[in-house]
Write a structure and sequence with these properties.
Blueprint (H helix, E strand, L loop, with lengths): L1 H5 L4 H22 L14 H6 L20 H9 L5
């Protein structure tokens, strides 16, 4: 992950590289035939398949960090009392 911190690779490229290395290690363990609880890897698939499922992971939003919004304390208390805020 140091390559992402130093700027040698993008964070996404660093994570992809880490995932690939972990798949290699787990694949070797799977092929070695561990006696108890060996890893079982899924076949590699197009990332679009995972993003099309209803559950996580989700596609990136166009605006990942929208601007914060200030809400009045009394408004927030009223919303909370009415069950509209957690």
């Amino acid at each position: 992950m140091a390559v992402a911190v130093t700027g040698e690779k993008t964070p996404q490229a660093a994570m992809d590289n880490l995932a690939s290395e972990m798949d290699d290690v787990l694949g070797r363990l799977e092929r070695a035939g561990m006696a108890v609880c060996p890893p079982k890897l899924n076949a590699k698939q197009d990332p679009a398949k995972w993003l099309s499922d209803k559950g996580a992971p989700w596609k990136k939003l166009a605006n990942e960090k929208p601007k914060g919004e200030t809400i009045g304390y009394n408004t927030l208390l009223t919303a909370w009392k009415n069950g509209k805020a957690r």
